[in-house]
Design a protein that fits this description.
This protein is mostly helical. It has nine helices and no strands. The radius of gyration is 20 Å and the shape is globular.
Length: about 270
């Protein structure tokens, strides 16, 4: 199989995986069993509109009842596809990335997109996604240990480090919310740092191992701070400023992990 054909095949897998991610993102946050693709009013979508890309391309974005599919659907499929193709291109000459390892990487891409979409839309990181992700990461460490990849011991250590560091941040978030509530005279609707973020960082530790996780944490903190500043500036300029607006932190954890998963050598070289 030539490289071009393989990339095209992975691209098709990415589009289909993005469609599955959309289905799960529609139903899992509402504690529903995943169903066939449907419109926001629960009307089943025709087979030709099961994918967001085809629904938009064929003019089947609107249900008979008038509800409309958001741009999230094609964007998720495109993002998943781009990440999977990027993974193939980045790892194609890496001797530590076997075919089995590549399959795990592609699965991670779909899981990361799913976690990000649900966190952005609902500010939730679901155990129904985290638990299977943890088991997949552990299986990855058992089946594909390599020079640049964690074995089972390193993966479990990474999971413990991820849990421990972010659990401290979680407790700090609870304390911060308590202090602010007392000062403001009303209870904040959400804590500053959720337990789902703790579990996500645990999964990322299992995937990376503890040493790359440290770098990923620094990247996460930097990106999270930058993102919060940009968000607050935009809200301030738009006249809708609220200092205590909770922001989803999961996407920053995901980005930090992705960078260290695919570009760890470049990051290390940059810091040396």
């Amino acid at each position: 199989m030539t490289d071009l054909i393989f990339v095209i095949l992975v691209g098709l897998i990415g589009i289909l995986s993005g469609g599955v991610v959309n289905v799960l993102a529609d139903d899992l946050p509402h504690r529903r069993k995943p169903r066939l693709p449907h419109y926001p009013d629960d009307t089943p979508r025709p087979v030709s509109a099961w994918l967001g890309l085809t629904a938009f391309a064929l003019g089947q974005r609107r249900s008979p009842g008038g509800t409309i599919l958001s741009w999230r659907y094609p964007l998720v499929e495109i993002t998943t596809t781009v990440l999977m193709i990027l993974t193939v291109l980045v790892t194609q000459n890496d001797p530590d990335v076997s075919t089995t390892q590549l399959i795990f990487y592609l699965v991670y891409m779909a899981l990361f997109v799913l976690i990000t979409v649900i966190d952005v839309e609902h500010r939730l990181i679901l155990f129904v996604v985290i638990i299977p992700s943890s088991l997949i990461a552990i299986l990855d460490a058992i089946l594909t240990p390599a020079h640049s990849r964690p074995d089972l011991g390193e993966a479990l250590t990474g999971g413990l480090v991820g849990f421990g560091v972010f659990f401290v941040l979680y407790l700090g978030g609870i304390l911060f919310s308590y202090v602010v509530s007392k000062m403001q005279g009303y209870e904040l609707p959400e804590v500053a740092f959720g337990y789902g973020d703790v579990m996500l960082s645990t999964v990322c530790g299992l995937i990376l191992g503890w040493q790359p996780l440290i770098f990923a944490m620094f990247i996460t903190v930097f990106l999270g701070a930058a993102g919060a500043i940009v968000y607050l500036v935009v809200r301030k300029l738009s006249g809708r400023y609220d200092m205590f607006t909770p922001l989803p932190y999961g996407p920053y954890i995901v980005i930090g992990t992705l960078i260290m998963l695919l570009f760890s050598d470049q990051v290390r070289a940059f810091l040396q």
